[in-house]
Amino acid sequence: MTTHANPHGEPGSNTDASVPVGGAVGRPVDRRDGHAKVTGTALFSAEHRYPNLTYATMVHATIARGTITGIDTAAAAAVPGVLAVLTHLNAPRIRPVRKANIIRDLGPSISGTAVDYLNTDQVFWDGQPIAVVIAENSAAANEAAPLVTMTYREVPARVDFAVEQKNATVAKGDLTFAGVAKKGDADAALATAEVSVDLHYTTPGLQHNAIEPHATTATWDGDHLTVHDTTQSTDQTHKYLAWRFGVPASHVRVRAEFVGGAFGGKFAVWPGTVIAAMAAKAVGRPVRLALSRKAVSWSAGGRTASSNRIALCATRDGQLTALIQDSITRTGSVGGLLEATSSPARHLYGADNMLTRQNLAEMDLLPNTSLRAPGEAIGSFVLESAMDELAYELAMDPIALRMRNEPKTDPTGGKKFSQRMLREAFQTGAERFGWANRDPRPRSMRDGEWLVGMGTAAAYHPAVRLTADVKVRLSDDGTALVQCSFHEMGMGAATVQAQITADALGIGYEKVRVEYGDTALPPGPMAGNSNQTATVATSVLAACAELTRKVTALARRTGTTGQEPATTLRAAHIPFLEASVGSTTRLGALRSQGRFLTTFLKDQRWSKAARGAQFCEIRVNADTGELRISRWLGMFDVGHVINPKTAASQLRGSIVMGIGMALSEQTLIDPRNGRTMSAGLDSYYLPVHADIPPIDVAWLNEPDKTMPLGIIGLGEVGVTGVAAAIANAVFHATGRRVRDLPISLDKTL
Ligand code: MOS
Q1: Which ligand 1 atom is nearest residue 374's CA?
Q2: pTM of this structure
Q3: Which of 79, 84, 500, 573 has the highest CB neighbour count under 10 A?
Q4: pLDDT digits (tens, 9 = 90+) for 539-554
């Protein structure tokens, strides 16, 4: 077995022109969108220009729950340049959110909330947009928005998680994630366990802070709507907008060629997108609505806070006998995601008795949504911290404890693993990191005033495939064009699909062009759940196989077998050949949905996931509690890697996000009134460059035989296990167990 590493960027590791035909997959080619981004020619959603463009700023509610009883827009309307102030009294009407239907389509299910924005006098959270000012320029809109005054009739609101978690109830769950998973009798096993730990961990809410804040530029032409939107889900956004504005889906075009990071925050449709389209309709001109950082915090959901009890039982020699996890997360009356915090506990380690339960507390806050490995980021902190605590109880090496409990089949449900190399990830990782140099006794390693600690944790994120329509065109000049409305949010999506296409067609990498991020193209999947590369590859490979069959037949007829495809096309006097997967006719759309369900069900036969082993070394100042991370290694089992450069960046970026979650990020909500006190970046602490050590990432590069080209998604697995590895290292360094994130310095002293 070989491991593949790609440390620190490798400038100049390739020039695209030197990629040999048939050898694009597996090469660290540069990102195709890189040049446009660093030279500023890439246009983001808030940068598209239209003649007569207007600018909008939203007004946000200042109560958590109640009714708007009075509105005064006179002062705002009097600001020079203001064109309109829309409230529920005068805004265009929209249709209520439609229920999702998995057979037909999931478009409506991506509603961030079910609120009828500016169509209702009801306020459901502090920060809900309740008016919008449209002006000739952004300065006028920004000046006028705070001048809109509202009076309310307030009612008591449920805004304090510490209080509301007492009223949590067991979640129903959905198709892919049950509210409760159990086997055996975990409570009985706990009562008679030889060794056990019974612990409580909490994590705070987190906010989205992609480098590009949410923004929409919307324009109507009759009853045709075009929006440039910061979305990671063009197809569903366009269906959603079509429904809400009561126009055929074919009349709505959603464009998102460039998105500056999304991380789950741009998966659902949030109020800004809908309100921009309403505003454009109202003023009969194009509207740009670019959210401030604070407006993002108020109107685009983030991660729920969580409260988790976990109990682990084992025999003295370290065999797990029972695992219990009870998690409480929040939801809202107008939306919210079931954050699958017990997902790692259900799938990582074998135990005869298991009971995992997801409980939901309904609250009057901006509905929570997906954020950076939803479920697994929290769940891996809980499980992997508890495993470390159990290892100390047993006086066992934490890696040995994990290896002792490697299951043969999935611990919940018993499915076969399509691929599982967690053991290899820990073994090779431990060697590479120098784990053997660790003295396991807490507070035993010291460097002057710095207490040194080493921690480890498993990483886990499920692998899924959705569906994508694609069209591939092969031309007689030797070029190919791939069309699919997938998303390039900075991860190298177009680059890897070009690599895959080039090899599948047997043409040069630089001959392949890829068009994406536009619903005028064949619909692609949402870019979430780390599905996109495998999903699009499935369809790209199918289309390329069809093209290859056609070219082979043509070559036989024209006597050009063995020559380049373009030679064959020219010999046959055919300017181009096309192959498509899916079509957008009514029937075609149904078939695509059928294809999705078939693949989805087929994939369900296996337990599929990306996994890995995180290792870190930290230093805690014995006098001040200051915590510095000095070394990091992530060793991953992520299937076959298409592009080592973009893969390494994805994994590193994810580890940075995990560090933020572990050390500094937290949404602060005023428990008296439900106001987000950490709105914006001035009061929400993201890691900065100086907080991040060199991050070594490597992977085993073993293809998952049940996935196209052996690909397992790797967008999110890097976040998982990070917080636990740090907390475990903190315990090793200081003897202090931190069970409540973030690990601020007061907790390490
Ligand atoms: Mo991800 S949180 O599924 O963008």
Answers
A1: 2
A2: 0.96
A3: 500
A4: 999 999 999 999 999 9
